[in-house]
Amino acid sequence: MSAPDGPTHDVVQRGLYYEELDLDARYLHRPGRTLTEADNVLFSTLTMNQQALHLDAAWAAGQPFGERLVNSMMTLAVLVGASVAQLTQGTIVANLGFTEVRFPHPLFHGDTLYAETVVAAKRLSGSRPGQGIATFAHTGRNQDGVVVATATRSVLVWCRDAAP
Prior knowledge:
Blueprint: E1 26-34, H1 37-46, H2 52-55, H3 57-61, H4 72-81, H5 84-87, E2 92-102, E3 112-124, E4 131-141, E5 147-158
């Protein structure tokens, strides 16, 4: 039921401030993203990655997986991108870096990537008052639950009272 005179306030979708990041939660980012041949070819060519394993179906058919693979940099980009709305939209100051990026199983055209994140650590910044550093452990799984990518990412985020 709506208020008689209409809405009284706006709610803006955003990520989480430093204080809201929960070390005991696993954030499941939904919906998943089904990666198509067109996605893979476009991403590979936009990023000037001419790897035949992504672009040449005849050549890839003779390789160990028997078909083209989704570009692993696209897998990483979608994995991190899927977390934005829930974790960092409007609350991030900067990405600080990535470590421990792994691709234990390939993604193929038509596979769906599901992303999840655990906040592995967080601390207030010593040099930037009103900001904190969070370490995210991102995991990507395909539609069968198989882990296809993992990455650790450090981000600088706003504290609630300091955010612009």
